[in-house]
């Protein structure tokens, strides 16, 4: 019913996502191209930035059905000239087994920021 819909919170209330948004804004990084390696798509929404990956959300049904999802992410990250990879901690279980994607990030990006809540990897020059 409409009454029930109106009672839903208007703002996505995720403290970790809010910390990531605040860090990106404070350090003028929100204008850069970034990819969030988790299902925290509200970060794109809160920064008014469209997600530029084919699968902004990863679920076991997708990774089970779509075996090449890691290659799709890697090609999306390359094609979009992604400056930053943001990894909320702990790593989302849907991504922790994405060894090709993680290897790609470790080769092409360097850890530039670490907190208890998230990691930021910056593209190597």
Could you describe the 3D structure shown?
This protein is of the alpha+beta class and 125 residues long. A four-stranded mixed β-sheet has the order 1-2-4-3. A hairpin with a 3-residue loop joins strand 3 and strand 4. The longest helix has 12 residues. The chain starts with a helix and ends with a strand.
Can you tag this structure with a few keywords?
about 120 residues, alpha+beta, 4-stranded mixed sheet, 7 helices, 4 strands, disordered N terminus
Helix-strand layout with pairing:
Layout: H1 2-6, H2 15-26, E1 34-36, H3 42-46, H4 60-65, H5 69-79, E2 84-88, H6 93-96, H7 99-108, E3 109-114, E4 118-123
Parallel strand pairs: 1-2
Antiparallel strand pairs: 2-4, 3-4
Short description:
By secondary structure, the chain is an alpha+beta fold.
